């Protein structure tokens, strides 16, 4: 009889004293291994528990592998489970020993009890050892056909596990098609759901490797499959419902009555207590109605209440996830939520990440009717004990001021902030007043009076100090002390650590000099001297530049440094609208919480089933000049870019998250601001791209007004394409998702064409000369993929093309979608003829 | 799809750790804990429930001081993962009776067993306590509930009032009672969290009720249950003018802004007679969540005054009046108020004969705290505090202090007047008469008076 070791009885894990403890365990396990004496199972349970508790806290107990396996011969299911858990954890690092377990696991796969069969099969597939895959195929095959749904459920996920260990084994055994059959026929909905998960994962991983994968993936969102799942949706567990709903967002209904059918069927899902189900349903509704403006609007109204309910029920974490989505919707359609602003008031006990979202929402929904109340509320927060939030609230007031036409009351409030005598409040308020003055110069009189009372000694933060100095320079004629304050600041030049402040000081003293020369001259001299001697390159350069331009001609200097300024009508947005659209497409995902599209934070191999948008992003990375791609613009997000009046109001309607706050405002920028043309040409690569395209366009006009060359087939009606067609990527994506495939065909390519197609760019230029423009391309030999578009001459009817070229088979798979279906055949002919001329000089 | 699941203690120890897909490196628990612990240098801000470190997304929810964490590398639905984590905590609680570090450590093998069935290769299989029963074989080791902090909103029933069987809510769904017999009973809790903001002049600026009807059933054989709510209950504010509901604040209809339901709930006759029918699954679950912005009578009226009394002194007077009937008591009331940063001392003065009250000046964050064990309906309490400043105050003192916030629990009282009119259990036999507990409670969510 084995003596039950008293010390092992303690159930809570304690640090093993070292090697001796492990070898002790080993010995005891050995003792029990062969024993069938009564009570042995209880002692084994205690031992196993101990081993697993060590495993949990991260102590390597893999050296017990052999003993654990020996002990596994038991009918006690609790013991079995512990053993399976252990084996699953260590098999990967002990592939040789893992072989020992195969035997008993395989035997258990044929057990009478379905529970044991399922457990054994799950453990068998969890070993993650490549050289054992041969042992998996048999049990998995019979598991999929098992009469018990638990076993089938486990087997389906087992197939997916096998795929990850050895994709070829899984595909060769034809498991995917078995899963497909199960998915469409099994009576158990969890089996169905698992099949769906597994197939999605397998086909998207295979997509790059096999020909059939994309087709199989398409098949998952085909009408019969979608309808089959939709009809059973209420049988699914809430988690599986989420899976199905996500799949439905990818489905393209053929007409609006289908859309309404789906929405009516899913309507009650919006009343579900599980936030994940509701958000998944919301996504379906939003995606389905994208092209139906009125209905889309109704959807917003409909989903408002359920989302607000979810925000206020559930744990803080759950409400945060929902609130982030609400935030996205508010940002897209602030007017829909403008009467619900009270829901976005902060509560004192909320975490800052929630308050921050709410402040942004309050800023967005502010309009003529609610601004007074919102600003009053925000002013309460400004006195908040939570300093970061207090500051954020002040900025929010400033942003509202910048987006409103009637800023009367707000200006007063902001000026009150300046008098509050809290240094951080003053700092933020100064920056805001400065931005406000850039937009509403007419308020300068009121503001300057208050700003003039602020002692520059109380302002320490560089941004605030820079703002104050800017105002001193800009309004030096109205501020009596301006030259003297600047002078005292210049005296302390060496103590000023921020280069930004020193740069501003230089410019401000220049401006002051032009307005009040006698009082400023000496200060200017001191500033230029200090600036030229400055160790900071920019400061040095600017001082030298001022010095030289002053020597050249003072009036030229004034025109450069202090030109008359136009008021800034809209401050540049921090995020481009393309980015926002991408995030919206990825509704109900992490993108919404992080406020960035997934390609910015997910590694490529984990991006999951790439949706269209994703492909577009990936494909375009290799591209150079012809097409400016949205994804690339993100990184360049040029902070020095000031939106000028030319870009005006249209940006506002959809997205006025105007980050007025950190927009640079030095005078150099203002010079450009007054010269719209130059500025946009210099700082906006997009425009540069456009003009380049435009010149291409001219070439086109010369080279080809008549795409149909003399020997073209005469039958189809003459279709003329617009050589200067333009379509932005997000519209393209939207259209691509909505339109049905009008034509799908396979074309053969000439050997010359294949020879010419060394890089995608070659074909791009060729097609462009035929007025067919590329919006995204990518791939490497032998597989290339292109998305083209073309526009009917003098009409806004578009043609969209997906073209996959395989150079080794010299074939092109072409899919055409068209706004106007009736002309798609004509366009196809045109496309074919354009393609056939590729490579022929 | 998640990659790993783990539970960490407050100190950051792994209590359970399950790796489902082997895509995320083993050290993830430490990386996570360090990130959460030191989110911002100043320690002022909490880490958000979801964040990304080196391509790994970390999700967490806090339950009774424990961190329930999931990791993944793919772009999943954050709601799904956070709901799942919360649900896993609930399933474990259903099994163990009490969720705490101690009970988890004692039952970690059982928890592993549960985790294996709840999630396979990162995909959720089931979170139904009932379904799981047939797959899980370990017996829970029940820990002493009395000295542990319980989980969930129903936990408030454990304190105070004798009428309620306090320990019942902490009993395991699967473990047998000491007597061997299982008691047939069902709990229905109507829990309302209220948020009110008073303006400095005492007007109500915003008010909201977030309610839940929570159910926990220990009935054998899963009988069908009918729950009848107020017949004059209506849902949705659509249509009517904003004044429609104002007139009803007396004794008229109850208007919910919106509500949602657990999936087991059938709403077939809800539109007709406001009854919900359901076959309650095992374990604790919310039958219905609702939200209401209809005007209601706030249970407490707060009055606060702060006055300068000389260059370095000021006086604060806080009055709290209970506006509910005298047969009802509020428990564990705490009133808090941030004081000016330059406050050096505070001397408190309670009304003569005050019992069960305590006062405190929290030096570190310059906060005044006033605790009252019990407030009887209809009564009024006053606190005076004389403040001494370390420097002369030159700004408006009301901008430097406040707002006053209040936390409380009022058992057997609900402000919305939503009621469970009856709770009908489909009878198995004439002698079948299980215990039914319908309990109401009102709690503060954000109860604030500005000064």
From TrEMBL, chain A:
Region: Disordered, residue numbers: 1-22
Subcellular location(s) of the protein: Endomembrane system
Keywords annotated in UniProt: Membrane, Protein transport, Transport
Entry protein name: Beta-adaptin-like protein
PANTHER family: ADAPTOR COMPLEX SUBUNIT BETA FAMILY MEMBER
Compositional bias of kind Low complexity: 1-17
Subunit structure: Adaptor protein complexes are heterotetramers composed of two large adaptins (beta-type subunit and alpha-type or delta-type or epsilon-type or gamma-type subunit), a medium adaptin (mu-type subunit) and a small adaptin (sigma-type subunit).
TrEMBL record, chain B:
GO process annotations (BP): intracellular protein transport; vesicle-mediated transport
Keywords for the protein's UniProt record, in alphabetical order: Membrane, Protein transport, Transport
Subcellular localization(s) per the UniProt record: Endomembrane system
InterPro entries tied to this protein: Adaptor_comp_med_subunit, AP2_Mu_C_sf, AP_mu_sigma_su, Clathrin_mu, Longin-like_dom_sf, MHD
A cellular-component GO term for this protein: endomembrane system
Pfam families, per the entry: Adap_comp_sub, Clat_adaptor_s
Superkingdom per UniProt: Eukaryota
Record's protein name: AP-4 complex subunit mu
Organism listed in the record: Hibiscus syriacus
Species classification: Eukaryota, Viridiplantae, Streptophyta, Embryophyta, Tracheophyta
């Amino acid at each position: 009889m084995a003596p039950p070791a008293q010390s092992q009885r303690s159930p809570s894990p304690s640090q093993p004293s070292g090697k001796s403890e492990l070898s002790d365990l080993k010995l005891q396990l050995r003792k029990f291994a062969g024993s069938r004496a009564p009570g042995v199972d209880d002692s084994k349970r205690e031992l196993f528990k101990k081993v697993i508790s060590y495993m949990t806290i991260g102590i390597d107990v893999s050296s017990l592998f052999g003993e654990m396996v020996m002990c596994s011969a038991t009918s006690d299911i609790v013991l079995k489970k512990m053993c399976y858990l252990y084996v699953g954890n260590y098999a990967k690092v002990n592939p040789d020993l893992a072989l020992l377990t195969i035997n008993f696991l395989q035997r258990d796969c044929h057990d009478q009890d379905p529970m044991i069969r399922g457990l054994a099969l799950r453990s068998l597939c969890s070993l993650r050892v490549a050289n054992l895959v041969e042992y998996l195929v048999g049990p998995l095959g019979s598991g999929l056909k098992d009469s018990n749904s638990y076993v089938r459920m486990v087997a389906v996920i087992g197939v997916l596990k096998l795929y990850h260990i050895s994709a070829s084994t899984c595909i060769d055994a034809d498991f995917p098609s078995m899963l497909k059959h199960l998915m469409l026929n099994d009576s158990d909905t969890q089996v169905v759901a698992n099949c769906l998960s597994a197939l999605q994962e397998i086909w998207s991983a295979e997509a790059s490797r096999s020909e059939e994968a994309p087709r199989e993936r398409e098949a998952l969102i085909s009408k019969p499959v979608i309808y089959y799942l939709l009809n059973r949706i209420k049988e699914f567990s809430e988690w599986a419902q989420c899976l199905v709903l996500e799949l439905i967002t990818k489905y393209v209904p053929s007409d609006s009555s289908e859309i309404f059918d789906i929405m009516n069927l899913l309507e009650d899902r919006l009343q579900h207590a599980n936030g994940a189900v509701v958000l998944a349903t919301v996504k379906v509704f939003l995606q389905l109605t994208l092209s139906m403006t009125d209905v889309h609007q109704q959807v917003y109204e409909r989903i408002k209440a359920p989302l607000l309910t979810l925000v206020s029920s559930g744990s803080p974490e759950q409400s945060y996830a929902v609130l982030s989505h609400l935030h996205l919707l508010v940002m897209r359609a602030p007017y829909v939520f403008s009467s619900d602003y009270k829901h976005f008031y902060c509560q004192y006990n909320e975490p800052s990440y929630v308050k921050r979202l709410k402040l942004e929402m309050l800023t967005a929904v502010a309009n003529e009717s609610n601004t007074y109340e919102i600003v009053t509320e925000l002013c309460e927060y400004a006195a908040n004990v939570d300093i970061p939030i207090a500051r954020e609230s002040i900025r929010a007031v400033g942003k509202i001021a910048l987006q409103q036409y009637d800023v009367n009351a707000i200006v007063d409030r902001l000026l009150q902030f300046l008098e509050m005598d809290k240094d951080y409040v003053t700092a933020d308020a100064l920056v805001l007043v400065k931005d406000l003055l850039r937009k509403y110069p007419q308020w300068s009189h009121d503001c300057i009076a208050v700003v003039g009372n602020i002692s520059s000694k109380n302002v320490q933060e560089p941004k605030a100090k820079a703002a104050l100095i800017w105002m001193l320079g800009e309004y030096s004629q109205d501020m009596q002390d301006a030259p003297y304050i600047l002078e005292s600041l210049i005296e302390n030049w060496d103590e000023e650590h921020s280069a930004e402040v020193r740069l501003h000081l230089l410019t401000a003293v220049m401006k002051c000099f032009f307005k009040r020369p006698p009082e400023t001259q000496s200060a200017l001299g001191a500033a230029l001297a200090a600036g030229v001697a400055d160790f900071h390159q920019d400061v040095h350069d600017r001082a030298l530049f001022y010095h030289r331009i002053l020597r050249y001609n003072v009036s030229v200097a004034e025109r450069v440094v202090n030109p008359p300024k136009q008021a800034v009508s809209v401050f540049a947005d921090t995020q481009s609208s393309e980015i926002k659209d991408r995030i919206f497409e990825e509704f109900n995902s992490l993108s919404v919480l992080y406020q960035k599209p997934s390609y910015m934070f997910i590694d490529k191999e984990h991006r999951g089933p790439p949706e269209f948008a994703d492909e577009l992003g990936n494909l375009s990375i290799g591209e150079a000049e012809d097409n400016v791609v949205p994804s690339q613009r993100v990184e360049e997000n040029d902070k020095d870019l000031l939106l000028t009046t030319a870009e005006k109001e249209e940006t506002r309607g959809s997205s006025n998250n105007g980050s007025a706050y950190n927009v640079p405002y030095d005078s150099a920028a203002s010079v450009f601001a007054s010269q719209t043309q130059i500025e946009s040409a210099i700082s906006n690569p997009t425009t540069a791209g456009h003009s380049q395209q435009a010149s291409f366009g001219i070439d086109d006009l010369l080279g080809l007004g008549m795409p149909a060359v003399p020997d073209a087939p005469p039958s189809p009606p003459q279709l003329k394409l617009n050589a200067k067609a333009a379509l932005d990527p997000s519209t393209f994506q939207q259209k691509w998702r909505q339109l049905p495939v009008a034509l799908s065909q396979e074309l053969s390519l000439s050997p010359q064409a294949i020879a010419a197609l060394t890089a995608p760019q070659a074909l791009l230029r060729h097609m462009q000369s035929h007025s067919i423009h590329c919006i995204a391309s990518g791939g490497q030999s032998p597989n290339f993929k292109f998305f083209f578009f073309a526009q009917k001459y003098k009409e806004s009817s578009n043609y969209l093309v997906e073209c996959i070229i395989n150079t080794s088979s010299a074939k092109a798979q072409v899919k055409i979608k068209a706004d106007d279906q009736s002309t798609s055949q004509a366009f196809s002919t045109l496309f074919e003829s354009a393609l056939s001329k590729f490579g022929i000089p | 799809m998640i990659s790993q699941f783990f539970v960490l203690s407050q100190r950051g120890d792994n209590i359970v750790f399950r790796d489902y897909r082997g895509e995320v490196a083993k050290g993830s628990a430490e990386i996570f804990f360090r990130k959460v612990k030191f989110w911002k240098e100043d320690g002022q801000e909490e880490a958000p429930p979801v964040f990304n470190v080196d391509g790994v997304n970390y999700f967490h929810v806090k339950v009774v001081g424990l961190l329930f964490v999931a990791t993944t590398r793919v772009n999943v639905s954050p709601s799904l993962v956070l709901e799942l984590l919360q649900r896993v905590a609930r399933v474990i609680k259903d099994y163990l009776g009490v969720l705490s570090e101690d009970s988890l450590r004692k039952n970690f093998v059982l928890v592993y067993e549960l985790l294996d069935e709840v999630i396979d290769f990162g995909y959720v299989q089931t979170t139904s306590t009932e379904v799981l029963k047939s797959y899980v074989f370990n017996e829970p080791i029940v820990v002493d509930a009395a000295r542990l902090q319980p989980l969930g909103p129903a936990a408030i029933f454990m304190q105070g009032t004798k009428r309620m069987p306090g320990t019942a809510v902490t009993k395991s769904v699967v473990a047998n009672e000491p007597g061997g017999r299982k008691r047939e009973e069902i709990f229905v809790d109507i829990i309302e969290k209220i948020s009110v903001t008073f303006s400095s002049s005492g007007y109500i600026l915003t008010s909201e009720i977030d309610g839940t009807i929570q159910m926990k059933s220990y009935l054998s054989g899963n009988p069908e249950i009918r729950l009848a709510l107020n017949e004059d209950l209506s849902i949705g504010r659509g249509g009517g003018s904003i004044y429609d509901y104002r007139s009803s604040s007396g004794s008229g209809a109850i208007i919910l802004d919106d509500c949602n339901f657990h999936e087991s709930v059938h709403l077939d006759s809800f539109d007709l007679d406001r009854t919900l029918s359901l076959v309650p699954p095992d374990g604790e679950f919310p039958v219905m969540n609702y939200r209401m912005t209809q005007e209601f009578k706030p249970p407490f009226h707060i009055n606060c005054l702060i006055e300068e009394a000389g260059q370095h002194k000021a006086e604060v007077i806080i009055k709290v009046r209970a506006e509910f009937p005298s047969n009802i008591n509020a428990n564990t009331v705490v009133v808090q108020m941030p004081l000016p940063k330059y406050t050096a001392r505070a001397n408190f003065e309670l009304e003569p004969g005050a019992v069960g009250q305590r006062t405190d000046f929290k030096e570190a964050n310059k906060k005044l705290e006033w605790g009252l064990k019990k407030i009887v309906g209809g009564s009024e309490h006053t606190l005076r505090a004389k403040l001494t400043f370390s420097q002369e105050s030159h700004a408006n003192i009301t901008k430097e202090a406040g707002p006053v916030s209040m936390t409380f629990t009022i058992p057997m009282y609900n402000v919305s007047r939503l009621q469970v009119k009856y709770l009908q259990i489909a009878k198995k036999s004439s002698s079948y008469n299980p215990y039914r507990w319908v309990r109401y409670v009102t709690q503060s969510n954000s109860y604030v008076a500005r000064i």
